[in-house]
Amino acid sequence: MTFAVITGGGTSGHVIPAIAICEALIDAGHDASDLKYVGTIRGVETSLMADSTVESLFLPISGLQRSFSVRAILRNMALPWRLLRSRLVARRYLSQWSPQVVVSVGGYASEPMSRAAIAAGIPLVCVSYDHLAGLATRRQAKHAQVCAVAFADSNLPRACVTGAPVRRVLRTLHVSEYRVQARQELHVSEEDSLIVFMGGSLGSQSINSVAVDFAQQGSVSGDTRVSILHICGDRFLKEPMPSVADGVQYQRVGYESRMAAVYSAADVIVARAGASTVAEIATVGVASVLIPWPAAADNHQEHNARWLSDDGAALLSDDASCRSGATLQMVQGLVGNKDLQVSLAQKARQKGDIHRSNELVKVIENAASSALS
Question: Which pTM was predicted?
Answer without folding.
Answer: 0.90
